[in-house]
Write a structure and sequence with these properties.
With about 70 residues, this protein is of the alpha+beta class. It has one domain. It is about 25% helix and about 40% strand. It is built from 1 helix and 7 strands, in the order H-E-E-E-E-E-E-E. Strands 1-2-3-4 form a 4-stranded antiparallel sheet. A 3-stranded antiparallel sheet has the order 5-6-7, with no helix packed on it. A hairpin with a 2-residue loop joins strand 3 and strand 4.
Amino acid sequence: MGLFFDETFDDYERKFENGGFLSISGIEIAGDRIKFDKGEILFEDLDLKRYHHYFMVFSKKNPHHHKML
C-alpha cells in the first residue's frame, strides 16, 4: 500500500515542479496561489484553520473568502 502513495505523491510532485497544478478536493494548487470556486488566494495571504471534523483554507485579509474541506 505504501508504494502506491509514494508513486502518487511523486507524480504530483513532478507535475507541480514542471509548472503544472495539483487538484485536491476542489482546490487547484498552482504556482503562487490556490484556486477554487469562490476565486483564488495567493500563498502569502493563505491561512489554514483546523476544526474537529474539517479544516478551512481562507484569506488572511478577508476570512469570508474561504473553502471548507
